[in-house]
Design a protein that fits this description.
The protein has two domains: 227 residues, Rossmann fold; 104 residues, no CATH class. 30% of the residues lie in helices and 24% in strands. The protein contains eleven helices and 13 strands. The longest helix has 13 residues. The chain is globular, with a radius of gyration of 21 Å. 39% of the residues are buried.
């Protein structure tokens, strides 16, 4: 069956009311908890993907490289297509063949690229995905931030790979950071680096004089090259004040965060400041306060040893969404000591 025929078949099932397997509740709430941050998990792909779908109202999803279907089976989207030459899915073929047969006017709202982790192939997958991306859509790219040089080494024989291997995906991403002003790009610093690419605009990364696109460049300029950030981060009062100065509206609520499960569970209560009314991260008794009151609270928090923890906006992941004022004990519980 051709790609067009398979698409029609899958769309017919979707339109008939056959629902996909529901995804876990939450999205970024799974990262932030009930209004505040929780310890980050290693498998962040479904969380980020489902949050983008929920926040932007996406209706169609394509996954390139499904492997064990761990991600696609929990994606909560009306239309879900998978492409993989080696594993059963809706389109069991190479991504090159899939895109060659895909009608030019067929678009997806969100495309997740996690196929062959080699620069040359990722280059093609990104170009083809941008061609078939709907207006306002997004590309999610896994393995953008290898932790060490060995994890991005090139293999002529992929069967020799042992352990964690991120490949040279980061190089494809980095080239776009240096060449494409018409894209909006960032990497969420978790789960080996989750890149998000959308039409928009960005300030390009400029290659330092005498440097080249190798792992030492990534190691020395990781944050700037990738435009990387953590979804939840501890900040000092001065940094919290800088975040506050850039905002206009402030909403204070009473939040709780549970750490642990069962008999080991502990519930912490703390104030939460969000920058949008009705944010999913807000707690109970939400009320608007002015900027001077927020600054006063930050001053009092510093005196009492409370630690500001910033978290990302649910809709625009690159922007701060609010601040939690937590005890240092809670901070240690939530963030732990392991790297993101």
């Amino acid at each position: 069956m051709s790609v067009l025929g398979k698409l029609k078949s899958v769309l017919k099932r979707a339109l008939s009311g056959e629902a996909p397997k529901p995804a876990p509740k939450g999205g970024l709430d799974d990262l932030q908890g009930n209004g505040g941050p929780v310890r980050l998990r290693n498998d962040g792909r479904p969380i980020i993907i489902n949050d983008l779908i929920r926040s932007h109202g996406y209706k169609s999803y394509l996954e390139i490289g499904i492997r064990d279907a761990r991600t696609i089976k929990v994606v909560d989207c009306p239309v879900r297509h998978g492409v993989d030459p080696a594993h059963p899915c809706s389109h069991q073929m190479t991504s090159d063949k899939f895109f060659a047969e895909l009608p030019d006017d067929f678009k997806y709202d969100l495309i997740f690229i996690d196929g062959l982790h080699l620069e040359a192939q990722v280059d093609k997958d990104i170009v083809n995905s941008l061609k078939h991306l709907s207006e306002g859509g997004a590309i999610v790219l896994h393995d953008c931030s290898p932790e060490n040089e060995d994890r991005q080494r090139h293999y002529d024989d992929l069967s020799k790979i042992k352990g964690v291997w991120n490949g040279t995906v980061w190089r494809s991403y980095a080239k776009l950071r240096m060449e494409r002003k018409d894209l909006s790009m960032f990497v969420i610093d978790m789960d080996h680096g989750i890149g998000v690419i959308r039409p928009g605009q960005q300030s390009l990364f400029k290659m330092p004089k005498g440097r080249k696109l190798d792992y030492s460049l990534l190691s020395d300029f990781r944050r700037e090259l990738l435009n990387a950030f953590k979804p939840v981060w501890v900040c000092n009062v001065d940094e919290a004040l800088r975040i506050v100065e850039a905002e206009e509206k402030f909403f204070l609520s009473d939040c709780q965060c549970q750490h642990g499960i069962g008999g080991d569970a502990r519930v912490f209560e703390y104030p939460c400041i969000t920058f949008k009314q009705g944010s999913p991260s807000a707690g109970d008794n939400e009320r608007e306060v002015d900027k001077s009151e927020v600054k006063r609270m930050l001053g009092e928090a510093a005196k009492k040893g409370l630690v500001p923890i910033a978290f990302r906006d649910d809709r625009e992941l690159a922007m701060p969404g609010g601040l939690c004022l937590c005890s240092d004990e809670l901070r240690k519980c939530l963030l732990g000591s392991s790297p993101v």
